[in-house]
């Protein structure tokens, strides 16, 4: 069968409009954005045009957007920059057990540096309660970091309630919105965040470019030094082609998010129906009110690792979890935090769609996934 890509939560394909914008820029004779001559000014203008587009996508002002190398750097910079700026006020951080590793690994390093971190666990639907976050707060808490949309299940977290809670207590609030921005009408003022992370390659832009929103007046220090780029907030020559592509993707996406959400909701139902038709009952870990573009499913009696390899042989791309740990055999920390047993966790795969995915593709893939999974059921494992 033809190759079908169902791993858009790991990365999306670059839009033709984005490729064209980047190609036009690369064909021009532009200089370093920090140079004051005409060649540099043209590069600087391209960066600032893209900054405006990214800011508009999240409801921010352009001056509050700092370009980074991607979502991981944005998360690292948000946590480290905030706690270092406020370390004389307190050394306690609150986050969740279902965060992307870009946050979790950074939190572990903060603990090694003498900070205390509380990890709030979700309920069985994969959603963290705002009241649980409230109970974790202490007088010395300086930062709360809660992702907006989980990258493995699509569960939407109550970030507005958490943002209001943090604001009431005078605590900085960061949200990893990498999986939210492609689908939801993100407005930084509405959610009340002080810091927000976004990545271009999750929304049909190029890889290797992202952004961190830093609200004006937020106590925060940069990670990188050695230049005055990004208003002194991130040293180093800007990735101008990547930034141009990011801006083009942001502009394209802004008017299409609602349509994309409706489209992927249809894809989810078609895919699940086709899988069940061939395999029978599966366990769906993704909540109904989550982002339909991310679907996490367990196939009872089937090894996810074996199923994943067989799907690849048949030209179907899926994932066993976060792309940052896809080369690892470790079970999903997100599903474990939801209280799922080891057998269920090790039989679970993530399928993710985009606005470019077609109904024909998911119908064909769903049937193939169901057939292959049925063939791989261990004796006595599928009741």
From TrEMBL:
What would you give as a GO molecular function for this chain, any one?
cysteine desulfurase activity
Sorted UniProt keywords: Iron, Iron-sulfur, Metal-binding, Pyridoxal phosphate, Transferase
- The EC designation for this entry is 2.8.1.7
UniProt cross-references to Pfam families, sorted A to Z = Aminotran_5 (PF00266)
- UniProt enzyme class: transferase
Aminotransferase class V domain residues are 4-363
Q: Does the keyword Metal-binding apply?
A: yes
Q: Can you state which reaction this protein catalyses?
A: (sulfur carrier)-H + L-cysteine = (sulfur carrier)-SH + L-alanine
Top-level division of the source organism's lineage: Bacteria
* Cofactor(s) it depends on: pyridoxal 5'-phosphate
Q: To which protein family does this belong?
A: Belongs to the class-V pyridoxal-phosphate-dependent aminotransferase family. NifS/IscS subfamily.
| Protein name (record) | cysteine desulfurase
* The organism of origin for this protein: Kyrpidia spormannii
Q: What is the lineage of its organism?
A: Bacteria, Bacillati, Bacillota, Bacilli, Bacillales
């Amino acid at each position: 069968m033809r190759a079908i890509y169902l791993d858009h939560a790991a990365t999306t394909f670059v839009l033709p409009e984005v490729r064209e914008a980047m190609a036009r820029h690369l064909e021009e004779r532009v200089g370093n954005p920090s140079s004051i001559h005409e060649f540099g000014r043209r590069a600087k203008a391209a960066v600032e045009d893209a900054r405006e587009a990214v800011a508009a996508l999240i409801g921010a002002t352009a001056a509050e957007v700092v370009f980074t190398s991607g979502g991981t750097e944005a998360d690292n910079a948000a946590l480290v920059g905030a706690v270092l700026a406020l370390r004389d006020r307190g050394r306690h951080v609150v986050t969740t057990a279902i965060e992307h590793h870009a946050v979790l690994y950074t939190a572990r390093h903060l603990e090694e540096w003498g900070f205390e971190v509380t990890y709030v666990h979700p309920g069985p639907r994969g959603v963290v309660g705002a009241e649980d976050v409230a109970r974790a707060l202490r007088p010395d808490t300086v930062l709360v970091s809660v992702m907006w949309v989980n990258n493995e299940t699509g569960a939407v977290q109550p970030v507005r309630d958490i943002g209001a809670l943090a604001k009431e207590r005078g605590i900085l609030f960061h949200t990893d919105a990498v999986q939210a921005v492609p689908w939801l009408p993100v407005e930084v003022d509405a959610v009340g965040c002080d810091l927000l992370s976004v990545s271009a390659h999750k929304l049909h832009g190029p890889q290797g470019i992202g952004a961190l929103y830093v609200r004006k007046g937020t106590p925060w220090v940069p990670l990188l030094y050695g230049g005055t780029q990004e208003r002194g907030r991130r040293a180093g020559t800007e990735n101008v082609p990547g930034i141009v592509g990011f801006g083009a993707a942001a502009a394209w996406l802004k008017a299409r998010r609602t349509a994309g959400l409706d489209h992927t909701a249809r894809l989810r139902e078609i895919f699940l129906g086709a899988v069940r038709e061939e395999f029978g009952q599966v366990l769906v870990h993704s909540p109904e009110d989550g982002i339909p573009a991310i679907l996490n499913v367990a196939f009872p009696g089937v090894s996810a690792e074996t199923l994943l390899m067989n799907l690849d042989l048949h030209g179907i791309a899926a994932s066993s979890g976060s792309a940052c740990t896809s080369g690892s055999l470790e079970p999903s920390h997100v599903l474990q935090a939801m209280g799922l047993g080891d057998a269920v966790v090790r039989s679970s795969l993530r399928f993710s769609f985009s606005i470019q995915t077609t109904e024909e593709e998911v119908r064909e893939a769903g049937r193939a996934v169901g057939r292959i999974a049925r063939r791989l059921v261990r004796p006595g494992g599928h009741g």
